Amino acid sequence: MKALPFILFFGIFFSVYGLLNYYIFIRGWQAMPLDSPLRTAYLVLFLVLALAFIGGRFLERVWLSPISETLVWLGSFWLAAMLYFLLGILLLDLLRLADHFLPFFPAFITDDYEQTKEITAIALVVAVVIVLTIGHLNALVPVTRSIALTIPKKVDGIRRLRIAAASDIHLGTVIGRGRFDRIVEQINSLDPDIILLPGDIVDEDLAPVIKENLGDRLRALRSRFGTFAVTGNHEYIGGVEEAVAYLREHGVIVLRDEAHALPIGVTLVGREDRSVVQMARGTRKSVKDLLAGIDMTRPVILMDHQPFHLEEAERCGVDLQLSGHTHHGQLWPLNYITGAIYEVSKGYKKKGNTHILVSGGVGSWGPPVRTGNRPEILDLVLTFG
Question: 0.85 exceeded by the pTM?
Answer without folding.
Answer: yes
